[in-house]
Q: What sequence folds into this?
């Protein structure tokens, strides 16, 4: 048995350090170590990889990650109470766990963790989407992202064209990564239970994404999905000569955003870039 497995149960850690969950910090803790072990293993082979964990909380997933072959875990936590509560785990990890106190939205994770690196986290739901967009911008820096989202966000990430769930997040995620929903967890798996189910999703960087600038992709998807019920010839007026952009991208003016696949948006982004240069 490792020193990590000898640590007290997470419920005891929560009681001892008075870690009552704070809603503003998106705190829904996982206390079942079988479950956190399963999430850590879902990340795949982590041999030699530095894992970045956002929001270790009382450390359940962190314990799971330390029980893999990962070279080290760098955990970023905003709540000082949790930072105090993790002291025993840091000691038991014998140099493989580094805890950084701060806001993950501000963190320079590449500077904190040497390559090869992967991110594994049960994300605070209130900042999950901005964190993901930030990582997608530079996804080639990561081997994989294995992340817990609210089910509704996970559905949007993986949605295919043709439905209401298909939107900006679907296009930008699938443009940069292969998006794989892995498994769902019921609300009761968390303490306190959130309102809805959660889903673990893995994102693996695409080796050769359709060429386009990230900012241009953001602009065209915002315009098209911002008025998703309108045809492209109307919704794209806000960003330039809509008819000309659509023609250059090889799209049809009467199509609506939700019908356009990722490659179509990348073509539109390139046409938009060209129109600005
Ligand atoms: N990993 C733990 C688990 O699975 O039980 C806790 C997950 S809980 C959903 C989210 C964690 O992220 C909390 O510990 C919370 O304090 C932390 N957190 C919230 N906002 C954060 C931020 N901006 N930067 C870093 N950590 C944050």
A:
């Amino acid at each position: 048995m490792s020193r990590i497995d000898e640590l007290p149960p997470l419920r005891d850690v929560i009681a001892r350090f008075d870690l009552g969950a704070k809603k503003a910090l998106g705190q829904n803790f996982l206390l079942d170590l079988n479950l956190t072990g399963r999430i850590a293993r879902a990340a795949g082979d982590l041999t030699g990889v530095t894992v970045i964990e956002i929001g270790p909380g009382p450390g359940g997933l962190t314990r799971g990650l330390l029980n893999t072959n990962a070279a080290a875990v760098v955990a970023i936590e905003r709540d000082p109470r949790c930072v105090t509560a993790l002291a025993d785990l840091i000691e038991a990890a014998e140099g493989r766990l580094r805890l950084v106190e701060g806001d993950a939205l501000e963190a320079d994770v590449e500077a904190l963790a040497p390559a090869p690196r992967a991110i594994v986290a049960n994300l605070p739901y209130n900042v999950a989407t901005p964190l993901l967009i930030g990582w997608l911008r530079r996804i080639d820096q990561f081997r994989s992202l294995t992340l817990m989202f609210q089910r509704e966000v996970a559905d949007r990430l993986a949605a295919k064209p043709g439905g209401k769930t298909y939107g900006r997040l679907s296009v930008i995620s699938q443009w940069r990564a292969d998006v794989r929903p892995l498994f769902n967890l019921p609300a009761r798996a968390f303490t306190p239970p959130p309102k809805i189910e959660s889903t673990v999703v893995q994102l693996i960087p695409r080796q050769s994404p359709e060429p386009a600038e990230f900012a241009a992709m953001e602009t065209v998807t915002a315009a098209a999905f911002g008025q998703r019920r309108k045809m492209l010839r109307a919704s794209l007026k806000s960003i330039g000569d809509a008819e000309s952009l659509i023609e250059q991208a090889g799209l049809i003016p009467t199509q609506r955003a939700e019908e356009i696949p990722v490659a179509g948006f990348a073509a539109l982004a390139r046409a938009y870039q060209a129109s600005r240069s």
Q: What stands out?
A: The beta strands are 29-30, 50-54, 72-77, 97-101, 117-122, 145-150, 177-185, 190-191, 198-205. The two ends are 62 Å apart (CA to CA). The longest strand covers residues 177-185. The longest helix spans residues 262-276.
